[in-house]
Structure formats: C-alpha cells, structure tokens
Design a protein that fits this description.
Its cofactor is Mg(2+); Mn(2+). This is Exodeoxyribonuclease III. Belongs to the DNA repair enzymes AP/ExoA family. About 25% of the residues lie in helices and about 25% in strands. It is of the alpha+beta class and about 280 residues long. The protein has one domain: Deoxyribonuclease I, Chain A (4-Layer Sandwich). The strands form two sheets. The chain has a six-stranded mixed sheet with strand order 3-4-2-1-12-11. Strands 5-6-7-8-10-9 form a six-stranded mixed sheet. Helix 3 runs parallel beside helix 4. The termini are far apart.
Length: about 280
C-alpha cells in the first residue's frame, strides 16, 4: 500500500559501508523505521551483487549504481519503484566511480550522492574531490532553479563547522573533510538556496552522523556530521522534523555511519483551494 497522501514523507540517507556484509542491519532498520525513501552509499558491490530480492521482500523498490569493492549508491522507495532520471554526475563523463544517482519517488526528486573523501591531501584525490564538488554545484543549481521539489541526500564528506559538527577539530585539521576549499563549496551550495534540514531542526545542538572505528570514538560520542539532506525551496517550508537513528550505529559490526532522516509534511492543496473559493465572487441568482 502506498503512503497516505496526508502522511509525512520520511526521507533518509545511510552510508551502509558494504551492503552485503551489513544487509541484516539495513533490513532491520528498514523494518523498524520504515523510511519512504532511503538513499544508500558505499554499497561496495557490483550491480549483479545488489540484494534486490531481499529489498523487495522488505517492501521496497530500488535503483542502484554499483562498483566492485568501492563506492556505489542506491535509492529505495517504499511500496513503489523509483523512476530513474540520472545516473552519474553531469560534467563527469570520464568518472569511473559510482557516486551519483537521481530518481523521482513519492512526488519528489531525490539526488543520492557519495561525494569523494579527498584524502590524502594535497594530491590527486583532493583535486578529484574539488572537481567533483564543482560539477555537483552546477547540477545542484540547475535542480534548484527547476522549482521542482528536490532533496539532495548523501555522504558529503564535509564537516560544515568546527563548533557543532565535530567533537573536536584538533586531530582533523589536515583532513580533507575540514579544509577551507571543501567548506567554501559547501557554503556555495547553501548560498544557492538549499536548506540544511538537520541543522535547521537542531540549530544549536552538537549532532553527529559518523563515528570512525578508532580510538573508541563511538562510545565516547566523538563524531562528525558529514551526512546531509538539503531541501529545495519547494520542500523547505514543509520540513517537519529531522534526526539521526543512532541505534543503528550501536549494532554489532555496524557501519561507521548512522542513518540520517527528514520528515516532509504533505502539500497543503486543500487550504489553497479554500482560499481561492473564498476570494471568488458568489454565483449570481
């Protein structure tokens, strides 16, 4: 059964860090949280290895763009099939890495991305990160200007600030995730008009989406916020809630990321119709 038209739409992003090894975690999360749309990153599997039978059994249709051992993105839609609109990032025809997938589902356009990490820097990996980010900025602007309801969801590999988005920046100063060039592009993205959903709902809270496997970071809540959901101007007024399903990170052999989500309220067509009716002249007798 499709989601009710008046029900909030829950859209999530989750870097699974290996869909085959962490399929039980993914299926448990889908069953418990029931997102309407889920964007996945780091599948680390070829297209033929994507567990579509298990995803279907969980009640989801899916599109995926895999790659052996690395990268890979997917879009899942509950009780429906997402309709693909783009595979790969415009302007990156020579890119052999599977990092971008775009589809229409449940009345919105969803861009699922896995932005390059960029380490070590300086070097070709950081140069690739910036080049990819620049092309993404161009495509994001076109999507924003389209006036369609759009969500750009994924692992951006950018920590926006030193104050609320990382436990302590001292040991990360040389990391590509905190570099001025990375943050400048993040700010340029927001300047287009996109709404950072998680920060909008939690403006003054230290909130994280990633805890690496070293130095006891998860038990100490020594995390980073690098998984983001950006809303277009068509969706931002309908933002109801946003959060992080941290319980998934606490599972045994978990991904180093936790699912991050937003809830979008239904479009208020009835109110607009009533307003038009009220402003119309009464019928002549």
């Amino acid at each position: 059964m499709a989601a009710r038209k008046d029900a909030p739409l829950r859209i999530a992003t989750f870097n699974v860090n290996g869909i085959r090894s962490r399929l039980p975690h993914l299926l448990r999360w889908l069953e418990q949280e029931r997102p309407d749309i889920a964007c996945l990153q780091e599948l680390k599997a070829v297209d033929e290895g994507f567990p579509i039978a298990d995803i279907h059994e969980a009640g989801y249709g899916a599109l995926w763009h895999g790659q052996r051992s690395w990268n890979g993105v997917a879009i899942l839609a509950r009780d429906s099939e997402p309709i693909e609109s783009r595979r790969g990032l415009p302007g990156m025809k020579d890119d052999e890495q599977s990092r971008y997938l775009e589809a229409a589902a449940h009345g919105v356009i969803v861009g699922c991305l896995y932005l390059p990490n960029g380490n070590p820097r300086p070097g070709p990996k950081f140069d690739y990160k910036l080049r990819w980010f620049d092309q993404f900025l161009k495509h994001a602007q076109a999507l924003f200007d389209s006036k369609h309801p759009v969500v750009l969801a994924g692992d951006y590999n950018v920590v926006p600030t030193d104050t609320l988005d990382i436990y302590d920046p001292k040991s990360w100063r040389k990391d590509a995730l905190l570099q001025p060039e990375s943050r400048e592009r993040w700010e340029a993205l927001l300047a287009q008009g996109w709404t950072d959903a998680l920060r909008t709902i939690h403006p003054d809270e230290k909130i994280f989406t990633f805890w690496d496997y070293f130095r006891n970071h998860w038990p100490r809540n020594a995390g980073l916020r690098i998984d983001h959901l950006l809303l277009s101007s068509e969706l931002a007024p309908r933002l109801k809630d946003a959060g992080v399903d941290t319980w998934v990170r606490d599972l045994q052999s978990a991904s180093d990321h936790a699912p991050t989500w937003v809830e979008i309220g239904a479009k208020k067509k009835a109110a607009k119709k009533a307003a038009r009716k009220k402003s119309s002249p009464p019928p002549r007798g």
